[in-house]
Amino acid sequence: MTERIREFLRSRREDGPCLVVDLEVVRENYLSFARALPDTRVFYAVKANPSPEVLKLLAGLGSCFDTASVAEIEMALAAGATPDRISYGNTIKKERDIARAYELGVRLYAVDCTEEVEKVARAAPGSKVFCRILCDGAGAEWPLSRKFGCEPSMAVDVLEYAHRLGLEAYGVSFHVGSQQANTEAWDQALASSAGIFRECAERGFNLSMVNLGGGFPTRYLKDVPAVEAYGASIFQALCRHFGNAIPETIIEPGRGMVGNAGVIEAEVVLISRKSADDDIRWVYLDIGKFGGLAETMDEAIRYPIRTPRDGDAVEPCVLAGPTCDSADVLYEKVPYPLPVSLSIGDKILIEGTGAYTTTYSAVAFNGFPPLKAYHI
User: Fold this and answer.
1) What helix, strand, coil percent values describe the chain, rounded to 5?
2) What does the DSSP 8-state code read for residue 371?
3) Where is the Orn/DAP/Arg decarboxylase 2 N-terminal domain (predicted)?
4) Which stretches of 12-103 are DSSP H helices?
5) Using CB atoms within 10 A of its CB, is residue 180 exposed (0-12), middle (13-18) or buried (19+)?
6) Distance of alpha carbon 290 from alpha carbon 297, whole angstroms
7) Hey, how many other C-beta atoms are within 10 angstroms of the C-beta on 239?
8) What is the pLDDT, as a whole number, of residue 143?
9) pLDDT on residue 222
């Protein structure tokens, strides 16, 4: 947590949980990605944190944007991005949304099947398309291996079909899984991509670009490799599989761009036990899965939690949110160690929450308002 965030929270008097994002951290993260992969264009994944402040900052730094909807495209344009810096990266799009994106000037689209190619050909003629392929995501906290993408062997047919329909078969994309801790995870996907490039050339058309996707992690409870380690490993894999004919490349960092820039301040609402001889306390916060902490689902993401009583003796606790939904439990399978002296009314800090919190916050489930956010 930065001193700027500490100072903001010291002077804050509002009630209820809030997220505070330090834009200087976002700036430094962007520059780190740009230095680590200097020949690669950065397409920030808007879904991670679509706040106007973040988008405007990144647009001013020269970032491009990976978008998943017309609304996100419009957000990027409003922040100062030009259409040539926007990718419509969702492989599941309504044809009328493709048409609207085309009307707004977007000419780069993701596909993973011939049916999606047909929609793009009708609604966005002449545009560039890249085909997303499946990869196993081993080493990621959240593998993304089934919903999006096709088998590499199918990708050549998809791209050839796009070429025959008058689209520009631009390249290949993949995603090695969210919060990917293995710097070598891109190697096999790049090997598959190189094979697709070769087969497309044999069929009479050439690809130009590999979209390396996201997956770049932020630090939660465990240390993660530096961005530079990912950049070096990816560059070595590109050289290994493409030789001297290295294609254009883009990356889509989201969590790695904004995750460590944000801190949520929350309050302890209740501490109780379920029986007189229960060894485990239940600690209820004024924020839960429906208030922005949806990524605790299956306890996949374990956020660092700071309390005003750190340093005191700790014991394992079940951590839960405030809503009347039994699914609103953050950590139970692996209880979270918190100070024994923790009390009702204490303010706690949940770190690493700059990504995928405000966007997952419910509109008003149980009447709780959406998570407030401040960008400083």
Assistant:
1) 35, 25, 40
2) P
3) 26-258
4) 23-36, 52-61, 70-78, 95-103
5) buried
6) 11
7) 12
8) 66
9) 87
How do the domains of the chain map onto residue ranges? 23-258, 260-375
What pTM was computed for the model?
0.95
Which residue type occupies 340?
V
Instruction: Select from 3.10.290.10, 2.40.37.10, 3.40.50.2030, 3.40.50.2300 the CATH code of 260-375.
Output: 2.40.37.10
Among candidates 79, 167, 78, 152, which has minimal Cα distance to 122? Answer: 167
CA dihedral 259, 260, 265, 271 (to 10 degrees): 80
Question: What residues act catalytically?
Answer: 324
Q: What is the structure's pLDDT at 140?
A: 65
Q: Whose structure tokens read 């008097």?
A: 13
pLDDT value at position 142? 63
Distances (CA, A) of 307 to 87, 107, 323, 335, 357: 41, 48, 22, 16, 20
Nearest to 47 by CA among 356, 282, 375, 279: 356
Contacts of 203 (CB under 8 A, 6+ apart): 156, 160
Q: What pLDDT, on the 0 to 100 scale, is given for residue 300?
A: 87
- Identify the pLDDT of residue 363: 80
Which residues in the chain land under pLDDT 50? Answer: none
Pick the CATH number of 23-258 from 3.20.20.10, 3.40.1000.10, 3.30.160.20, 3.40.50.300: 3.20.20.10
**How many CA atoms lie less than 13 Å away from 132 in the CB half-sphere?**
23
**Which two tokens mark 195?**
């094979």
Asked if 58 and 21 count as a contact pair (C-beta separation under 8 A), the reply is no
